[in-house]
Predict the structure of Alkaline ceramidase.
Amino acid sequence: FTNVPFFIFGPLMMFLMHPYAQRRSRYIYIVWVLFMVIGLFSMYFHMTLSFLGQLLDEIAILWFLGSAYGIWMPRCYFPSFLGGNRSQFICLVFITTAVSTFLSFLRPTVNAYALNSIGLHILYIVCQEYRKTSNKELRHLIEVCVVLWAGALTSWISDRLHCSFWQRIHFFYLHSIWHVLISITFPYGMVTMALVDANYEMPGETLRVRYWPQDSWPVGLPYVEIQGDDKNC
């Protein structure tokens, strides 16, 4: 049941960010398709509790992060030998992700190292951009992302390390909390990276953060809208 948000938020974000994707890159649709694949493989894993299910779940997350990494990584953070060439950077990310996927079938810990490497580098970039920017919307998104991610990570670690304790007090919901929080964290993270990317790749455009279903609601699903686009949601 807690995987349902992946199947709701994925298509919804594809619709809400359609004008942005048309202007920036249609490869963004792949990111949201992979977001739904995470939900699918996670559901399979929890139905079967098999090693294959766990591996597929982690591989889906790796490809999701790798795709977002390749599309939205600011050029100023590229390795110097690439000379700021995004096509070459995407190829490098693709090859690294493909090799990690292959090796994870031989040695599953490889996938964990790859996931942590991408995740930590994204966190480093977000922290750097937080220090640079005076954009209140971007700073707010980063703050919300960090809080959601910290809550999700705390739930996951606590569930892994103190499973017997939670079972003794009959509290079986930590893993479900992890699922819900991470399914919300990913959209916030993608919108954050889109705003950061726009500073470098779309200097002539003004992006505005909107929230579905209403901007005035205290809780909503964030998406970006290019100023001047006519779109009613």
